[in-house]
Specification:
Layout lengths: L2 E10 L2 E10 L10 E6 L11 E3 L1 H10 L2 E2 L1 H10 L17 H26 L9 H4 L5
């Protein structure tokens, strides 16, 4: 049996509230748990003391027994100074997707075509004015 320290959702629809619990890794998210170790209320401001509450001595006990915290709980524990979480790096996260790159290339190509057509039009000599029909055939009086 592998133990996890994780979040179990409670609260109403669109009003989340989480319990920090220790549970078997195979039990459902909101299902049976062994012990409640704290709470997390994401609706409160980040600087509020009530946002994350931890029972530190019980968390230390369960981690000494071998319970592994999930990434979100590990963030809370790191902020409380109870565990160390290594910063992750995803350099591709900020890169644009394939479709956006294709759209931008097409946009650049269209702008280049437009600039080329404008340059050709500017370089060509202006067309000679067409003679009017009256100038070709003078009227006889």
């Amino acid at each position: 049996m592998s133990l996890k320290i994780r979040l179990a959702r409670a609260g109403a629809k669109k009003r989340p509230y989480y319990r920090i619990v220790v549970a078997d890794s195979k039990s459902p998210r909101d299902g049976r748990y062994i012990e409640k170790l704290g709470t997390y209320n994401p609706l409160l401001p980040r600087d509020s003391a009530e946002r994350v509450k931890l029972i530190e001595d019980r968390i230390k006990h369960w981690m000494s027994v071998g319970a592994q915290p999930t990434d979100r709980v590990l963030r809370f524990l790191d902020k409380a100074g109870m565990a160390k979480r290594d910063a992750r790096s995803n350099p591709n996260k900020g890169q644009p997707g394939k479709k956006r790159v294709e759209r931008e290339e097409a946009k650049i190509a269209a702008a280049a075509e437009k600039a080329k057509a404008a340059a050709e039009a500017a370089a060509a000599p202006p067309p000679a004015p067409e003679p009017t029909p009256e100038a070709e055939h003078p009227t006889a009086e």
